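Supplementary notes (optional reading)

For those who missed the lab, this is the record we used. Protein: Mitochondrial 2-oxoglutarate/malate carrier protein. Length: 329 residues.
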Amino acid sequence: MSTPQLQRAVDDRKLSTSAMKPPQVLQAVPAKNKQLPNTIKFAFGGLSGCMATMVVHPLDVVKNRMQMSGEGGAAREHKTSFHALRAIAQKEGPAGVYAGLSAGLLRQATYTTTRLGVYTWLFERFSGPTGEPPGFLSKTAIAIVAGSVAATVGTPCELAMVRLTLDGRQPPELKRNYKHVFDALIRIAREEGVLKLWRGYVPTVGRAIVVNVAQLVSYSQSKEMLIESGYFKDGIPCHFVASMISGFLTTAMSCPLDIAKTRIQNMRVINGKPEYTGMVDVITRVVKNEGVFSLWKGFTPYYMRLGPHTVLTFIFLEQMTKLYKQYML
């Protein structure tokens, strides 16, 4: 065989061999995780919380009324959540169960926006290089930071919401008669001092830390465990079950702090002396005058509110995030 013919045969063999190899462009390459801009994370966090609040706000009203019922060992105004809901509707009309909605929405726009935004940002920042989530201790630390920052931002709206939801139970001479959340905030600052907008800050921060650790961490862990079990895929049914588990744990752990927060923020100062000196004083007096289990007073409406609110918030958040990544990134 001549030299040109031999060279042509070698070239043909190389071409044939390379054709048998899979094209490099068809090899699987891990897709880079799409990250949401921080502004979108904060916006989605607040919007999902507001959407959930529109549904469950009446339970917030019932929860606060139940937590104030029987204060100081007095006879309870409401025996059950259903009794409270019916009494509010009968005495104050259908609008009564939505008392303080403006404050509830502004609270979500500040507190929840900050809480979920900071948590999501830190969660992604401390995730592994290939997208694996942070460990349990890291999630806990992230939740504590997110809860503390959010409570600082959201306490004034929390204070306004507590007072607006409880004003309907007061006799006429003791009603504060706030028109809406902004009227409440302005009057509190003018009549009591700007710093009083953060009344109940300590139990609010304490509750926020407990809620974040129990809710956000347990939600992430529950979701991972459900998916790993093989019975669930990453979708709405999985988010629902994980949220209900998270909501129950959160309610059980944070209810005593929530009662302390509610009573401190609603208390009056009589002759320069406040009704309570602080969170420990509230808890001590509740146990002494009303019994240990009164620390979980309002558990049912709290869970009925927190469970669905957790479910709806995370479902709305997950779906908005999914749609944004699908169509905007």
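If you only remember one thing from this example: The beta strands are 269-270, 273-274.
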